[in-house]
Amino acid sequence: MIDVGKTMSKITLWSRDGQLLDRQVRPNEKCEEGGIARLDAAGIAAWATGVLGGHANSGVEYIVPVGHGAGFAAIIDGALAFAPLDYEAAPPQSAMDAYRAARSPFAQTGSPALPQGLNFGAHVWWADRLYPDAMARATLVPWAQYWAWWLSGVAVSEVTSLGCHSDLWSPDAADWSDLAKGQGWDRRFAPVVKAGDVLGPISPALAAATGLPATVKVLAGLHDSNAALMAARGFAEIARNEATVLSTGTWFIAMRLPAAPIATADLPEARAILPEGRDCLVNVDAYGRPVPSARFMGGREIEALIEIDTRRVDIKPDQPLLLAAVPAVLAKGAMHMPTLAPGCGPYPDAKGEWVNQPEDWYERRAGACLYAALVADQALDLIGSDERLLVEGRFAEAEVFVRALAALRPKTQVYVGSAHNDVSFGAIRLIDPALMPEGTLRRIEPLDADLDTYRNRWLARLEMPKESNA
């Protein structure tokens, strides 16, 4: 599997029976062209070629590309037409205003209006104005499928990427949005295929560059959080039950698997019961089904909160000390208010700040975990999460976070996995859906603490007038 994320890229090798063989990681470098932040396609390609070459004799049979869901690439004559735009590159306000006036409604797309290029339709719109000649001739592909093309030479699109708050897809209709049709983007994007479809063998050029067998097959691939959802479905507790998967990393993304089908128009934003813009959205799974979702930039916020600390909140030796710090945090009324990622999460317009900021190293990190649990709890409510919750990814190992979440949601069975079976394992389940995850799920014991009172005080502060909320 090749996983090309926002902050880092990974290449993971699995055996046919689901045994992890190797994992190589590369931090993605920041790059800029024409004063605009870009995705490091060239640097990732050079690194991936070297890593794949190191496994030329490892018996590789398939490669599954995975990527974040907020990017696209334009291909002309077997090469990038221009360096892909980074989703944190903000279009000019005039372009964004025109785009917002043209975009399709939430009830059709399940895409809330997001800042910068998080609706990647905004970047397609902007690119049409930056590079009109190239965009008119180019074949467009989502970011994950750019890597499928790089591997195989076959250009395709795929619904988990198109359906990831892009503004381009209608989950209920399983078709392009009115915006995409009106702009002619439905004809300019490569044909839509299924995530598990085999595009063909690796390209002759890549086989020569890496030494991999020319018979290695390339799948269309999928959006990274949807790959985590595929992994979770391998557990009996999740597979056919009402359940939610909370994928944690730079982004915390909650994806609900409803017991009965739910239409996009039934979600809060579409009914106007809740304010617009609370990062409630609809993803589309690898089978093309709508997945009610909510998200916030939890990993980045936690890292901002712990500031100069060099030890992460999820490091195993520190878990007992972080748990022991919770009573002091609660007794002092130390809490952080949202948000440190403006425009994102359930409170996109709130100003992040500490209340009674802890000085102690462990208390500050425990407080950051409690903050993440409070925001996650609100995000889960937005999508009607119920019965079962599986927390996966890096922060599943942060005991204060997962145990606080279990305490805040006492009617929910909260689980974490006992092995790393997340994005990369979900990707290989496209090849063999019957593959069972390693290990078992562990039921999380709630924190023995009065988090109801803590949450009520936190919510009360959010409702204060802005001049009083200091």
From TrEMBL:
The UniProt record lists the keyword Kinase: yes
Record domain Carbohydrate kinase FGGY N-terminal: where: 123-230
SUPFAM superfamilies: Actin-like ATPase domain
Superkingdom: Bacteria
TM ranges: none
Key words of the record: Kinase, Transferase
Pfam families hit by this protein: FGGY_C_2, FGGY_N
Domain Carbohydrate kinase FGGY C-terminal: start-end pairs: 241-434
Single GO term (MF): kinase activity
Name listed for the protein in its UniProt record: FGGY family carbohydrate kinase
Source lineage: Bacteria, Pseudomonadati, Pseudomonadota, Alphaproteobacteria, Sphingomonadales
